[in-house]
UniProtKB/TrEMBL annotation:
<protein>
    <recommendedName>
        <fullName>D-serine dehydratase-like domain-containing protein</fullName>
    </recommendedName>
</protein>
<dbReference type="InterPro" id="IPR051466">
    <property type="entry name" value="D-amino_acid_metab_enzyme"/>
</dbReference>
<dbReference type="InterPro" id="IPR026956">
    <property type="entry name" value="D-ser_dehydrat-like_dom"/>
</dbReference>
<dbReference type="Pfam" id="PF14031">
    <property type="entry name" value="D-ser_dehydrat"/>
</dbReference>
<dbReference type="InterPro" id="IPR029066">
    <property type="entry name" value="PLP-binding_barrel"/>
</dbReference>
<feature type="domain" description="D-serine dehydratase-like">
    <location>
        <begin position="321"/>
        <end position="428"/>
    </location>
</feature>
<dbReference type="InterPro" id="IPR042208">
    <property type="entry name" value="D-ser_dehydrat-like_sf"/>
</dbReference>
């Protein structure tokens, strides 16, 4: 079974990010950075204590550890990795994984696909339907590049017909058919054909289309569970087994490359177990079997101190590579401190930030300071976090927080952390707070 090769981004486009001029509109950067390019500013060896709070910071050593760990894990289980780029929308971080063996990118919207193409991405899976005529016309032009591989999803015959209609009304001329994966769903899930028979009907309709090519089977298991309870794991496994069965039925009557793809970052172990028989069968058929088995884990690069820390099966191998920092600006009553970062600054949809430690007064550092073992964030306003003594704290416990102290915060859910920042500093890590990168996002 041949494995796809890594698809790197355009080096010139990535290098151009270092030529972007910094300004005071770049939230958190020191005032002295204004007027310098990213490259010029980094050449001055800035340190984290120069940056203004509230702040979200990436740890370079942790990113490298996670990227290596998830790539090695996927490879060991016979899976390609096409990480979901919508998590970060940061081409520099996309390249970080492509350089380690990821075979492409997954994205969620046509606009995201266009951004990735602008950075030279040559292997893209759109984990969504593509029915807008103008987006289809743009894609038709991109498919003239024979080195560009693209897949999108469809979960109904109506979706297929909308694609055909959109291509026709746009006047686009396709140089080759669009690869479309049948999306299988489940009751209570997200998108996806709700029954196996309906999914087969979609597959047949794609196969009959003059402008589309049946590319395989796709799905998302993460919406079927939110923890590792027996019920959630059983629902996820049943769904993945259905995906594999559908793939094998299509494989039996179809020549050419077919992809089977699933996976967020919560149940990737169950994905690997469910896909294992199909991977073994493909390896045993012929040396040139063109089946591809793809994991789309996006949050594993950054991991977190909340949701994924609690649910990921790779908890011992992945570490949180993002952290929030906020400063104490008010101590209005005993046992309560207000920080200068809130909903506009930190993710909160999968759990509130967790106070990890304080730093020396008015100084940022990645090294632990005073542990906040008796404290928790109990609420967020737009630009404030409420830090209180835990209800379970011993009687008389007090917050060891002074106005001006900086609190390091563990964050939950990378997918809603990056969209709040246009620029994120990257520290060297391992106790070194030198800022070695400024990651630009494209939301």
């Amino acid at each position: 079974m041949p494995r796809a090769t890594a698809a790197r981004l355009d080096t010139a486009a990535l290098a151009a990010l270092g030529d972007l001029e910094l300004s005071l509109a770049d939230q958190g950067v020191p005032a002295r950075a204004a007027g310098l390019t990213v490259r010029e500013f980094l050449a001055t060896s800035p340190t984290l204590d120069e940056f203004w709070t509230p702040l979200t910071v990436l740890d370079g050593s942790a990113l490298a550890r996670n990227a290596d760990a998830i790539q090695a894990w996927a490879t060991a289980h016979g899976l390609e990795l096409m990480p979901h780029g919508k998590t970060t929308m940061a081409p520099e971080l996309w390249e970080f994984q492509l350089a380690r063996g990821a075979t492409g990118l997954t994205l969620a919207t046509p606009g995201q696909v266009r951004i990735a193409r602008g950075f030279g991405a040559s292997s893209i899976q759109l984990a969504n339907a593509l029915v807008a005529p103008h987006a289809l016309a743009w894609l038709a032009g991109e498919l003239a590049d024979e080195g560009f591989s693209f897949w999108c999803w469809a979960d109904s015959i109506e979706t297929v017909e909308a694609m055909e209609r959109g291509l026709e009304t746009s006047g686009a001329v396709l140089p080759r058919p669009i690869d479309v994966l049948v999306e299988l769903g489940a009751p209570g899930g997200r998108t996806g054909a709700r029954s196996d028979d309906a999914a087969l009907d979609v597959a047949r309709r794609i196969h009959a289309s003059p402008v589309l090519r049946l590319g395989g089977v796709a799905g998302y298991e993460g919406s079927l569970g939110h923890d590792r309870s027996p019920g959630a794991l059983a629902a996820v496994r049943d769904y993945l087994d259905r995906m594999v069965a559908l793939f094998e039925r299509i494989r039996a009557g179809h020549d050419g490359e077919l992809m089977l793809t699933a996976g967020g970052s919560a149940y990737l172990d169950v994905v690997a177990e469910a896909f294992a028989p199909a991977i073994e069968a493909a390896a045993g058929r012929t040396a040139d079997d063109s089946s591809r088995f793809v994991l789309r884990s996006g949050a594993s690069l950054v991991h977190d101190d909340g949701f994924y820390r609690g649910i990921s099966p790779l908890g011992g191998e992945l570490v949180a590579a993002m952290r929030g920092y906020a400063r104490v600006v008010s101590h209005p009553e005993p046992g309560l401190a207000l920080l200068d970062g809130g909903k506009r600054d930190f993710p909160y949809d999968e759990g509130l930030p967790v106070p990890l430690h304080t730093t020396e007064q008015a100084r940022l550092t990645s090294a632990p300071g005073t542990p906040l073992t008796e404290a928790s964030v109990t609420a967020l306003n737009d630009q404030h976090a409420f830090v209180r003594v835990r209800e379970s704290a011993p009687s008389g416990a007090a917050l060891a927080l002074e106005i001006g102290d900086v609190v390091a915060l563990g964050l939950s859910h990378p997918c809603t952390a990056f969209d709040k920042r246009r620029l994120l500093p990257v520290i060297a890590g391992d106790g070194d707070d030198t800022v070695v990168g400024l990651v630009r996002t494209f939301f």
